Amino acid sequence: MLRGHQTWIFQNRPVIVSTGTVVGPMEGEGPLALDFDLVHGDIWLGQDSLEKAERKMLEEACEQAFAKADLNKEAVQFFLCGDLINQITPSCFAARTLSVPFLGLYGACSTSMEALALGSLIIDSGGAQHLICAAVSHNSTVEKQFRYPTEYGGQKPPTAQWTVTGAGAALVGNQGTGPHITSATIGRVIDMGISDPFNMGSAMAPAAVDTITAHFRDLNIGADHYDLIVTGDLGHVGYEIARDLLIKHGLTISEERFTDCGILIYSREQPVFAGGSGCGCSAVVTYGHILKRMKAGELTRVLVVATGALLSPLSYQQKESIPCIAHAVALESGSEG
Amino acid sequence: MSDQQKKKLTPVQQEYQKFAQAREPKRSVLYNCVKAFLVGGFICLLGQFIQDFFIWNFDFTERTAGSPTVAVLILISVILTSIGVYDHFGQWAGAGTAVPVTGFANSIASAAIEHRTEGFVLGVGSNMFKLAGSVIVFGVLAAFLVALIKTLWSMAGG
Known about the structure:
The structure holds 2 protein chains of 2 kinds. By secondary structure, chain A is of the alpha/beta class. Chain A is about 35% helix and about 20% strand. Chain A has 10 helices and 15 strands. Chain A has helices at about 25-30, 50-70, 90-100, 110-125, 140-145, 200-220, 235-250, 260-265, 280-295, 315, and strands at about 1-5, 5-10, 15-25, 40, 80, 100-105, 130-135, 160-165, 165-175, 180-185, 230, 260, 275, 300-310, 325-330. A 7-stranded mixed β-sheet of chain A has the order 1-2-10-15-14-11-12, with helices on both faces. In chain A, strands 4-3-9-7-5-6 form a 6-stranded mixed β-sheet, with helices on both faces. In chain A, strands 8-13 form a two-stranded parallel ribbon. In chain A, helix 7 (about 235-250) links the parallel strand 11 and strand 12. The longest helix of chain A is centred in the N-terminal third of the chain and has 20 residues, at about 50-70. Chain A is globular. The two termini of chain A are about 20 Å apart. Helix content of chain B is about 75%, strand content about 0%. Chain B contains 9 helices and no strands. The interface between A and B is large, with 34 and 44 residues.
């Protein structure tokens, strides 16, 4: 049901029945390693191309979600997924393996929450009993497509970010005890004229702020409604900017209640510049770390705001600025439902 | 960003960029330059040793020792690239490892490794010069222009 301008309220309270998270070696060395289901030490995953490795991670994340929910794929009606690679081939090819009716999505790094928001809407409206919402990114395939060869010795600035190698899948259903999805706010595309692809945090921060303020305006709630507001992949740079921008907009959120997946996934000692990015970043941190904390009772209400930079290598070469988007999904612990 | 591009931005965008810039960590230009100078100089020093090695031990003159010296430096760079060391070194050294011939070799080798999975013809062959290609194009163009100026100069003078 629409509330305000751009927010859906899910009255039937769809449930995250189970999740699957698969990550690569860098994420395995990070502080959240124990929250993930599978950690791979090899970025190739034994495959003969990195694109196949990315697809394999996605398939494994889905398998984990199926296994934990004790369901087989026939019980799932739809598969909503996206990634960052041209024509979202890792998602399409994983959908071929799953052979579940498939909706391919692209919202850059916001794809994880784009999928969860749409999936929740489908479940809420009775369009499915179960579906899978997933997102995947692989550091090396993204570098190859968007930037330079991985072994190229160019110097990156401290505002650059490290694309997460990881796949996160959530099995969403119409009943269960897991955390509920209560509402979602679909973001507008915001472009503040930043054109440096090594400075995505600054480019995406205004989109995150726009969606967060829209969410609170549409639902007429205050920032203290949530125990935690977590942005997708702003990194240290974008996070600082977003926090200050929110204060400028009259929304002061304390540091303990506001964090970023790109900051959480790596430790400061790791050579990841300003933090993690990629649609796998918000997917694995939300479906691994955040949901674990919710199930442990540490968090009751969480707002996940996945941010995406909608650039392409071509648009960057043609000196276009970077339009950005953010989608917010509100999660609530299942105890009262 | 150039002033011309800035003019196209709306006042709100300009205000935000100032706001964001104040919160972005900066690279120390001086520190970076010093590192680049030292590393670049060290690579040249290494080249000098290799050149002297060829002159002392083999039948090379200072003029002819250049080619095997460059070949050895390229080989070292390609080996360091293929074992995954050069990119970390480049991140630290900046232009120090990018400007000498080792940087050129790295750009070709890294692109060749990257596109190996697309096969030798469509992958390695067509992508090898993805980064180095523009260096070659504009290197040849610059050489042509300089040669043209020199020719015109000597024609006018002679």
